[in-house]
Amino acid sequence: MNPHFSSPFNFGAIPREFSDYRKSRVAILPVPYDSTTSYRPGTRDGPHAIIAASRSMELYDEKARANFSEMGICTLDELDIVTDPERMVGRVYEAARQVLSDGKFLVMLGGEHSLSFGTSKALKEAYPDLSVLHIDAHGDMREENGGSRFDHGCVARRISEICPVVQVGIRSLSGEEADFISMSGHRVFYAYDIAQDTDGKWMEEAIGALSGSVYVTIDLDALDTGIMPSVGTPEPGGLQWYTLLRLMERLSQRKNVVGFDVVELAPQPGNVAPDFTAAKLVYKLIGFFCR
Ligand SMILES: [Mn+2]
């Protein structure tokens, strides 16, 4: 029988012996939710597009000279959706807690960014010294947005209320957010400054600003629109592929990364390259953080 024909619909099309939940080191939680997205919806289709693209991805990593799937990567069923963002965040929190209590490394696929408060909260309970590395074009530091404190534009603010946050790639924020950032004193590494810093000193500073246990949340709009146009709220001047990978690799060498998410992919019909970029990013991060 054609092996591809029989391969399961999971992240990486990984055979059952390496994708069974009980034996897996990593659990991928897809959350197809985009109720508060402001400009263009579609991130509800993100998790499915990432998983679909990942099935054509080579599982051997030429740089690490390893096949990360052999550690066991399980794809969970898509989480059931409720419209209200606060209740949805609650569901993500419960699902994340379950995965953590089963001793798995958690990877959440969004969906919109508001979901990351649920995972951050579960991780903070499991790792009291947690800090969050927030990679995004947008500050997401609003007190409330669209009548909700659990809107995608508030996610970093909510997380900053439970643990320290370091932000990377920022190039869009309101005056209110800028005031809050200077008042709260947390570290922000703006996209403009990153682009000027050819020595990459900012990376060491950003990593140095984090605590021992780190959760990474990546809004794909942090990447440059040239390589990542499939986002709801694009901003020019973002991070390049190898810049982000270098940051993640160095982070993995110096900190204990305890989970991550990749959110805000809004797939575009006819342009699958960004879906493949997101899938490869997820796989590379699993390699960095779990080996
Ligand atoms: Mn964003």
Description:
The protein has a single domain, classed as Ureohydrolase domain (Arginase, Chain A), CATH 3.40.800. It starts with a helix and ends with a helix. Helices cover 35% and strands 17% of the residues. It is α/β, with parallel strands linked by helices. It is built from ten helices and ten strands. It has an eight-stranded parallel sheet, with helices on both faces. Bound molecules: manganese (II) ion (MN). Manganese (II) ion binds at residues 136-138, 219, 221, 233.
Q: Shape from CA axes?
A: globular
The largest sheet is: 8 strands, parallel
Strand fraction: 15-25%
The topology string of helices and strands comes to: HEHEEEHEHEHEHEHHEHEH
- The CATH first-level class comes to Alpha Beta
CATH architecture: 3-Layer(aba) Sandwich
Distinct small molecules: manganese (II) ion
Query: What is the CA-atom radius of gyration, in angstroms?
Result: 18 Å
Termini separation: 32 Å
Helix content: 25-40%
- Helical/strand content category: alpha/beta
DSSP summary, beta strand count = 10
Could you list the spans in which at least 5 consecutive residues all have pLDDT below 50? Answer: none
Whole-number average pLDDT?
A: 95
Number of helices: 10
Number of structurally distinct domains: 1
